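We modelled each protein-ligand pair independently. The example shown here corresponds to the guanosine-5'-triphosphate entry; the chain sequence is given first, followed by the ligand as SMILES.
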Amino acid sequence: MEAAQEITSTFKILMVGDSNVGKSSILLRFTDDQFLPPEETSATIGVDFKVKMYDVDGKKYKLTIWDTAGQERFRTLTSSYYRGAQGVILVYDVSSRETFEHLSNWMEELNTYCSNNDVVKMVVGNKIDKEAERQVTRKEGAEYARKHQTLFLECSAKTKIGVQQAVEELVNKIVDTPSLWRKSSPNKGTVTVNDSVPSGLGSGCAC
Ligand SMILES: Nc1nc2c(ncn2[C@@H]2O[C@H](COP(=O)(O)OP(=O)(O)OP(=O)(O)O)[C@@H](O)[C@H]2O)c(=O)[nH]1
């Protein structure tokens, strides 16, 4: 019988952005390939997280993806969300210019709490299925990302287009940035740099 493959590392990925842009929906699409109709969704309170295994180049990585509340009143313990994160996805809604304009607030928060310059950032414009209601062009999104030196992608949690690709690109970049996760290797084999528990108080913080 074949031995279970060892986990090379655990990555913490954080999703931030205004309320209603679709962070929970992107996460649900990525982990469970599901999309809930509007009447079945509710605002995230505090933080939620899901775990998914991800294989790249014959190595297994454990992704803990944290979905944070967009609504200010539900955001508590903000600094602990960012602690230990190797990747952050900043989400806006392409059919809401306001959510795009608020990206600078999220970027500021990220830069405040995440002092590690290597942390991989990705800007994601969601809801591209609402093309007729689009308020932010792809070019504007790409330009913002270029200016802030982040990855960029547009997606739709509803139709699923771009969702898998967004997470994959982010994770591949983290894998390509060993300084982010090869910090406190306890041995030469498995490396785990932070907890996957929602407290976010993992050891070997990247931020
Ligand atoms: N048309 C369309 N609607 C979407 C898409 N993604 C999410 N929605 C809808 O947008 C609304 C908000 O989605 P959520 O995933 O709850 O948004 P959120 O960013 O997690 O919101 P908070 O938890 O308050 O921060 C829901 O009604 C979703 O059904 C999408 O890609 N296309």
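Residues 19-25, 38, 41, 43-44, 69-71, 126-127, 129-130, 156-158 surround guanosine-5'-triphosphate (CB under 6 Å).
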